[in-house]
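User: Study the shape:
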Amino acid sequence: MGNVDQSLLVHPPAKVNLILKIFDRLPNGYHALWSFMQTVGVTDELTIRVTDAFEGVRLECPDTTLPAPTANLAYRAAELVLERAGVSTGVALKLVKGIPVEAGLGGGSSDAAATIMGLNRLLGLGWTNGDMAALGGTLGSDVPFFMEAPTAVVLGWGRGVIRTALDGGRWIILVNPGFPINTAQAFRRLDEVRQTIPALPGALESVERASSVSWGGILALMENDFEAALIDDYPVLADIKRTLLSMGAEGALLSGSGATVFGVFQEQAEAIRAKEVFSEAPEYRIAVGPSLQGGLLERTSSVGAPSPDAAGRTGAKQPGC
């Protein structure tokens, strides 16, 4: 590379599951799932630098609550790219977390997807979205979604991602009560409490086939199978949901396996008012951002270059960071 470092600054977004249905356990031990997912303008900040100053992957992250670098999904994604591409070079990652960890918001998966897509661009690998999704899927079922974001139906664990669109936009508040819910434990609890596993409703089959859907249509179908399974163990989740609905949210739901509950508002001012109410609880982590449009790397800028990001501000964080 002629001793010239190449870098990208990416803002990997959070996601919410507007619909999440969990089905039978697969032979590989994972559950089949069906989810309608949307990215939100609450982001991490990830700098990806390719250099010939060293070989391998290095990760810098000031968040001491994260796992060791070798267990971080962005780190593992970079290692996978170098291995799959057969490239001997250095990759330096700097990750500043803005998305709560183990919160049902897909932050780690978003970081991994951004790393794969960013390195594909920096290294000139020419991989397709399908190539990258196949690689990312080995790290987690949410990773391929972020390569098709902002809106998609996800057929979990190897069944595919179907890109779609939501007409119009909304403001989304993320309310995390300040504790994590382990995903594996959430699945075990779901298996313990439910008696039957229903088939996919016909309305969701229609959503799966549609090229675009309305917010009104999706809000009428909002459901998360984890919510009913976890609500008795974590009654604060129900309290948060009730408060959001009482403040005018069009819908409120647990995201992923939790513990974040999100509310959907038509107006930014309404979401901000809700944020002010929840901010009275010091242990809560709260953020507000818009539903996003555009793919992950469409919100990327070159480090050290004067090209503006998607918000029109050089190197600026996206709304809600």
